[in-house]
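Quick one, probably user error.
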């Protein structure tokens, strides 16, 4: 009895120690998750490229030479891709980012100082607005106002354009002490050429101006770029639909305010988390050194490391472990290669389709749709909704959204009926609830990037677990 009790306690202690070790490893991996992302990317790339290296090695080339030739080919493809679409992709990504994060209101200050020895009366009026009224004074006083000797009055000017077209105006400051009224020139959303032309007229831009007994802090103000963001445009569209939707909602809801608030919260959460990861992962060091070096290491030394690990296994389990490693490599390799191939095909189809229908910034949106397609069930919705949001913010409006829906419906039909049946290893049969759970966890941890890599990593874990379970079960049965 004592021996059984001691055995039970010893077994319980081992289980507890195992749980503690697993929790410790999990906590450690969580704390360094941003550092691990480049190595995860390298691991995936090495699995995708490994069969090609093996094939070249089987034809007589050394493994190092095979890897070197593949690297040269990948670099060549990257250089060609950069010079063909790299510039356009960069410009379109910057344009989308600017549309989401665009300032909608810009405030600048302008002051008038009485440098004389007597009280001066000043009046302020707007003139020559182009187009319409885009500039306004913040909490303007009742003009005219009096400035005592040495006193300064500061005016705040707000720039809140309803569109992103160029705007300019003139604020006229008049006083009995001035022979000619002073004119403060303001503009925003102009191109560099328009700015040069606008500020070429005297007095010089951003220069302090003295006129009789008054001193003006600036001669002109450049408000930069401002206008409604994509979220604001979406809220305006929803506001127009609210009377039609109110009957279905059943309760009084301010949809315009809801879209604005929740849209900004979602963007700040996703972009905020992702930006920190992207800065760490795709910095010059990670992109140019860590990922290629890790890929080369996995391809060159992966087989040797596997052999050394197998040698540590007791002879009784040697055949089992060898068989498990072989099956896991085949399953994971096929799964990852299937994911990469399907992602590329869907991305290419999306870019071509969105370009044909005339959607602005088709390249990054199509690439996002391709990557999002790695997420079962939710991926096609993410790509379609993103493209629809961009379509609503264009002049095409609802008709452009209809074209987007048709385009993505055709792409999904091709994917489900042609691409997926050919890429058999792509499917790992993840339950929809599990997909939603891991995508939510990935979003919380790493933002958009976490959403994209959560499902493939879960697929790898499931394939590995199933293969190990079947191998152990078969081994025991035999």
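Nope, works fine. Designed sequence:
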């Amino acid at each position: 009895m004592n021996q059984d009790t001691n055995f039970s306690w010893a077994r319980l202690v081992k289980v507890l120690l195992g749980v503690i070790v697993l929790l410790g490893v999990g906590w450690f991996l969580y704390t360094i998750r941003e550092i691990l992302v480049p190595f995860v990317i390298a691991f995936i790339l090495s699995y995708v490229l490994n069969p090609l290296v093996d094939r070249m090695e089987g034809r007589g080339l050394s493994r190092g030479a095979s890897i070197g030739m593949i690297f040269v080919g990948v670099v060549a493809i990257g250089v060609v891709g950069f010079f063909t679409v790299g510039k356009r992709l960069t410009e379109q990504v910057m344009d989308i980012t600017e549309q989401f994060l665009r300032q909608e209101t810009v405030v600048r200050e302008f002051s008038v100082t009485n440098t004389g020895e007597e009280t001066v009366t000043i009046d302020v009026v707007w003139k020559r607005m182009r187009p319409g009224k885009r500039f306004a004074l913040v909490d303007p006083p009742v003009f005219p106002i009096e400035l005592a000797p040495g006193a300064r009055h500061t005016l705040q000017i707000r720039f809140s354009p309803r569109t992103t077209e160029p705007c300019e105006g003139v604020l006229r400051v008049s006083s009995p002490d001035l022979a000619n009224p002073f004119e403060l020139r303001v503009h925003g959303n102009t191109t560099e050429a328009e700015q040069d032309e606008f500020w070429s007229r005297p007095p010089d831009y951003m220069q302090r101006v003295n006129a009789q007994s008054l001193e003006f802090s600036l001669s002109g103000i450049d408000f930069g770029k401002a206008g409604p963001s994509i979220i604001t445009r979406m809220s305006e569209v929803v506001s127009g639909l609210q009377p039609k939707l109110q009957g279905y909602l059943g309760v009084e809801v301010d949809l315009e305010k809801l879209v604005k608030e929740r849209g900004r919260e979602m963007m700040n959460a996703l972009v905020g988390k992702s930006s920190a990861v992207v800065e760490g992962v795709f910095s010059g060091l990670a992109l140019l050194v860590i990922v290629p070096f890790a890929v080369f290491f996995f391809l060159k030394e992966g087989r040797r490391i596997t052999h050394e690990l197998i040698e540590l296994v007791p002879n009784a389990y040697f055949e089992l472990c060898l068989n498990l490693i072989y099956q896991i490599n085949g399953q994971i390799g096929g799964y990852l290669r299937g994911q990469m191939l399907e992602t590329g095909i869907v991305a290419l189809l999306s870019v071509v389709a969105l370009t044909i229908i005339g959607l602005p910034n088709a390249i990054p949106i199509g690439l996002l749709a391709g990557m999002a397609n790695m997420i079962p069930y939710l991926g096609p919705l993410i790509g379609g909704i993103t493209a629809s949001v961009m379509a609503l913010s264009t002049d095409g409006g609802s008709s452009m959204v209809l074209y987007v829906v048709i385009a993505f419906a055709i792409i999904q039909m091709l994917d489900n009926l042609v691409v997926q049946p050919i890429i058999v290893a792509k499917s790992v049969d993840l339950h929809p609830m599990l997909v939603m759970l891991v995508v939510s966890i990935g979003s919380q941890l790493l933002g958009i990037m976490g959403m994209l890599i959560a499902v493939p990593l879960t697929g790898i874990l499931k394939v590995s677990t199933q293969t190990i379970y079947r191998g152990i079960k078969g081994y025991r049965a035999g």
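Residues 272-284 have pLDDT under 50 and may be disordered.
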